[in-house]
């Protein structure tokens, strides 16, 4: 699996979450799984930075991308359920194939939905509290 070329962005523009994926690149490739919402958020940031394409794939397609001799990936081969993603570069080369537990995927989806709801209601930040809500200041 190929590592995408670095973009033209300066180091000051890098988000820490993208850097985390960069630092753990080989480990993530070998393990073929993500273990938490924060890792999934870091992957989303990394894919955005490198303009990578991510798609849902079947267990069979995911299993075919794992070297059977890879001890770290063997755990994923034995697992049913979960969400499987394939991330590819602009040239179509596979960068990551990953399994994510359903509860992690669902938690990430809820987080994103909450963020979108918040963005839609961003004016709520500028609402002035009613007089009864400010009594605790006295």
What labels describe this entry?
4-stranded mixed β-sheet, alpha+beta, 4 strands, 14% strand, 45% helix, 138 residues, disordered C terminus
What does this entry show, briefly?
With 138 residues, the protein is of the alpha+beta class.
Explain the overall architecture:
It is built from six helices and four strands; from the N terminus they run ααβαβααββα. With 138 residues, the protein is of the alpha+beta class. α1 packs across α3.
Number of helical segments? 6
User: Which term fits the overall shape?
Assistant: globular
Class by alpha and beta content: alpha+beta
What's the gyration radius in Å? Answer: 19 Å
The tally of beta strands, per DSSP, is: 4
What's the order of the H and E elements? HHEHEHHEEH
Order of strands across the biggest sheet?
1-4-3-2
From the structure provided, what is the oligomeric state, counting identical versus distinct chains? single chain
**Helical fraction:** 40-55%
Q: Taking all residues together, what is the mean pLDDT? A: 81
Distance between the termini: 62 Å
Main sheet characteristics: 4 strands, mixed
How much of the residues is beta strand, in percent? 5-15%
Low-confidence stretches: 6-16, 134-138
